């Protein structure tokens, strides 16, 4: 094992070399194929039971939940320890074989698709909670720990981990995509909630991004290597352990839903709630089309209008006051139909439309998968980008419910896509690109939380500019000089 200091030194050395070649740098292509001898050697490292070349297992690992077409790995390896991960990585690196970390395959940008074949490295068997420090509000987990299992484990401690992508994802997959979800407006995203990561580099070195055992809330010790790996989408190394922040389970939760005739009124309400400093836990938006899709899917009868879904977390004393203040703002902005719930079953019923939205959207077109856009802008620009997006959807004559983590300025259109329907696919691809460009022109990003993966590689160049992407490629070169880590992702 190498210390972080050694790693930093070697990266600095690598950087000196890169400066010479950076302008012509491109991610090297796969240089070797997976042979039966190669598979045999993998079996020796991880054991026969942890290697599969069966079609069914490869198919399972060749795609995520997105609309992107499957690309199968040649072989799937199930790791049981960091030592095994290190040996597998080094072996792939020595043989120039692509290596694709696989969390739970819930990504929405084709992150796990094995574009050049190679080895899919499934982390599910490494699923232990390594350490819990309840007084310090942190815990350390192996990569295969799932967020719902973690919260089930934590329940009796009075703590929880609030980052909540709609799917039950692996914690290290969430690190790798910089995931967030409905609670980000209050608790932040993975970027704000990861304290340390253990990482295996392609050459087999193992290091801790903040130093072994470190788990402080703050540090100004050099470069932020932890956040370099948050959002790295399996292109720099394999995350084998994460130390994350925890929070006290709120004493009381209140949920509410209300409706508006215009997107502008809904967003104005959100901005005013935030300006008043009301510490909302969730501030979500569903447009009229989304509510309609939900009513059809779940046989509900919700008011079909632009709607806000709200949640308040806090001590019982004072939470009602927060709700009353929000109620006043809703009414001042022409909101109507305000419903409220504090009992857990009633809250779940009230928020059902939000929680089932991806499935309600795909139910609009049988056999479809979600083509999800993920634009995020400064909140004051949100009404413009949502209204123009609705116009694009209506002009193209496609189905496109809109859902927004509106408190963060982040929103999605979930286009239900049957991949065989090329005409709709082309229209949706066009809208998606125009939306992202519009978001970028309004100081936004083409992805608030799903990542670049396969679908947004061109947009990354538009977002960061040529030099920004060039610097990112230099970083990639320093960690993964042979380009074996998840090739074809993030960069064109
Ligand atoms: C219904 C529904 C709803 C949502 C979402 C999905 C679905 C299906 N998502 C997206 C998704 O849940 C999110 O991207 C997860 O963070 C991915 O975690 P997996 O474990 O599934 O990673 P998955 O296996 O899909 O991998 C994703 C990427 O991370 C890499 N990776 C995985 N494990 C790694 C490891 N240990 N080390 C290095 N790299 C690794 C992979 O190589 C790949 O590039 C989401 N997201 C969100 O942010 N907010 C949301 O609201 C939602 N909502
Ligand atoms: C899919 C997703 O990101 C959401 O439901 O918010
Ligand atoms: Mn989302």
UniProtKB/TrEMBL annotation:
Chemical reaction(s) catalysed: (R)-lactate + 2 Fe(III)-[cytochrome c] = 2 Fe(II)-[cytochrome c] + pyruvate + 2 H(+)
Pfam family name, one: FAD_binding_4
Keywords of this entry: Acetylation, FAD, Flavoprotein, Mitochondrion, Oxidoreductase, Transit peptide
Record flagged with keyword Transmembrane: no
Residue ranges of domain FAD-binding PCMH-type in the record: 69-249
Group of enzyme by EC: oxidoreductase
GO cellular component: mitochondrion
Top-level taxon of the source organism: Eukaryota
E.C. numbers: 1.1.2.4
First-listed, main subcellular location of the protein, grouped into a coarse class: mitochondrion
InterPro entries: FAD-bd_oxidored_4_C (IPR004113), FAD-bd_PCMH (IPR016166), FAD-bd_PCMH-like_sf (IPR036318), FAD-bd_PCMH_sub2 (IPR016169), FAD-linked_Oxase-like_C (IPR016164), Oxid_FAD_bind_N (IPR006094), Vanillyl_alc_oxidase_C-sub2 (IPR016171)
Entry's Gene Ontology BP terms: lactate catabolic process
Cofactor list: FAD
GO molecular function terms noted in the UniProt entry: D-lactate dehydrogenase (cytochrome) activity; D-lactate dehydrogenase (NAD+) activity; FAD binding
Compartments reported by the entry: Mitochondrion
Family statement: Belongs to the FAD-binding oxidoreductase/transferase type 4 family.
Subunit structure: Interacts with CSRP3.
Job of this protein: Involved in D-lactate, but not L-lactate catabolic process.
The protein's name: Probable D-lactate dehydrogenase, mitochondrial
Annotated organism of origin: Candidula unifasciata
Top-level taxonomy: Eukaryota, Metazoa, Spiralia, Lophotrochozoa, Mollusca
């Amino acid at each position: 094992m190498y210390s972080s200091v050694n790693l930093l030194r070697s990266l600095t050395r690598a950087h000196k070399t890169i400066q010479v070649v950076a302008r012509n740098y491109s991610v090297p292509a796969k240089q070797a194929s997976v042979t039966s001898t190669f598979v045999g050697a993998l079996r020796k490292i991880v054991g026969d039971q942890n290697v599969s070349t069966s079609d069914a297992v490869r198919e399972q690992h060749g795609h995520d939940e997105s609309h992107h077409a499957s690309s199968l790995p040649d072989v799937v390896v199930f790791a049981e320890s960091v030592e095994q991960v290190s040996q597998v990585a080094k072996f792939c690196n020595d043989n120039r074989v692509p290596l694709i970390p696989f969390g739970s395959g819930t990504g929405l940008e084709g992150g796990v698709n094995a574009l050049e074949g190679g080895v899919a490295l499934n982390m599910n068997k490494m699923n232990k909670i390594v350490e819990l420090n309840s007084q310090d509000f942190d815990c350390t987990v192996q990569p295969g720990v799932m967020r719902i299992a973690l919260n089930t484990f934590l329940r009796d401690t009075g703590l929880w981990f609030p980052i909540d992508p709609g799917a039950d994802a692996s914690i290290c997959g969430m690190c790798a995509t910089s995931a967030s979800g409905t609670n980000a407006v209050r608790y932040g995203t993975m970027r704000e909630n990861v304290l340390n990561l253990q990482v295996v580099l392609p050459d087999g070195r193992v290091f801790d991004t903040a130093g072994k055992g470190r788990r402080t809330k703050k540090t100004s010790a050099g470069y932020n290597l932890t956040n370099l790996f948050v959002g790295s989408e399996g292109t720099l190394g394999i995350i084998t352990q994460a130390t994350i922040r925890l929070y006290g389970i709120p004493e009381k939760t209140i949920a509410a839903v209300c409706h508006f005739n215009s997107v502008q009124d809904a967003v104005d309400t959100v901005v005013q709630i935030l300006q008043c400093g009301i510490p909302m836990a969730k501030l979500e938006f569903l447009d009229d089309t989304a509510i309609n899709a939900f009513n059809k899917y779940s046989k509900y009868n919700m008011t079909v209008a632009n709607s806000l879904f709200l949640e308040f977390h806090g001590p019982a004393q004072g939470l009602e006051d927060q709700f009353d203040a929000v109620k006043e703002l809703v009414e001042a902005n022409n909101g109507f139909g305000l419903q409220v719930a504090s009992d857990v079953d009633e809250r779940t019923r009230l928020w059902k439309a939000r929680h089932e939205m991806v499935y309600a959207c795909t139910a609009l077109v049988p056999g479809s998968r979600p083509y999800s856009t993920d634009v995020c802008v400064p909140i004051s620009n949100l009404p413009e980008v949502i209204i123009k997006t609705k116009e694009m959807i209506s002009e193209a004559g496609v189905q496109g419910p809109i859902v927004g983590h509106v408190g963060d300025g982040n929103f999605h259109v979930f286009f239900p896509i049957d991949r065989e329907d090329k005409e709709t696919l082309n229209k949706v691809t066009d809208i998606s690109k125009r939306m992202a460009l519009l978001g970028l022109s309004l100081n936004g990003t083409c992805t608030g939380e799903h990542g670049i993966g396969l679908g947004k590689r061109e947009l990354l160049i538009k977002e960061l500019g040529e030099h920004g992407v060039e610097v990112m490629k230099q970083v990639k070169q320093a960690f993964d000089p042979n380009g074996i880590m998840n090739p074809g992702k993030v960069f064109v």
